[in-house]
Specification:
The protein has 169 residues and is mainly beta. The protein is 6% helix and 43% strand. The protein has 1 helix and 9 strands, in the order E-E-E-E-E-H-E-E-E-E. Strands 1, 2, 5, 6, 7, 8 and 9 form a 7-stranded antiparallel sheet that branches. A hairpin with a 7-residue loop joins strand 3 and strand 4. The longest helix has 10 residues. It starts with 14 loop residues before the first strand and ends with a strand. Pfam families: Phage_T4_gp19 (PF06841). This is Phage tail protein.
């Protein structure tokens, strides 16, 4: 039996991220055009939090003690965590997170974005799968520890929350 390329598991080390400003329902007064991340900021060291789970509710039938019914409730999502080495060059995604979380401003405005995580093939030419995360906003920026005893890359982690996601294969 001959194996096809589609029979092998996908490798998870070639991926990139793009972002667009959410328009319409979530930003009804926004007059900004859709913007995407530049090539300098679309690659991260790791991405985690692509997860959805459904809660459950148990119902017991009165009089029948050895039966229960499990019914699904709402879907919950983990936060999306993007990790990369800190670079001196400014990025629109990093600026968006910093402006939302730490900028001293008299007005508080949430600019939501749609983030797309694309899993690429070995050559980085073809997109194997795409996850789109809707209504994202930053929840945390975490700068890794600095240590004078070690020669390590300074790490920045961006944590985003979102309303739901979809996957295109």
């Amino acid at each position: 039996m001959k194996l096809d390329k589609g029979d092998y598991p996908v490798l998870g080390f070639n991926f990139k991220v793009t972002s667009t400003i959410a328009m319409g329902v979530n930003n009804p007064t926004s007059n900004k055009k859709s913007s995407t991340l530049g090539p300098d900021e679309s690659f991260f060291q790791s991405i985690s939090g692509i997860s959805a789970s459904v809660g459950g509710s148990e119902i017991y039938n009165s009089g029948i003690n050895n039966r229960q019914f499990k019914l699904p409730t709402s879907t919950t999502y983990q936060d999306l965590k993007l990790t990369r080495g800190i670079v001196k060059k400014s990025s629109s995604l990093g600026d968006w997170c910093r402006n939302f979380l730490i900028k001293d401003s008299s007005t508080y405005q949430i600019e939501r974005r749609t983030l797309n995580v694309m899993l690429l093939d070995r050559s980085r030419k073809d997109i194997l799968s795409t996850w789109s995360f809707f209504n994202c906003y930053p929840r945390e920026i975490d700068i890794g520890a600095f240590n004078a005893d070690k020669s390590e890359i300074a790490i920045e982690s961006l944590t985003l929350t979102y309303s739901h996601f979809s996957q295109d294969i």
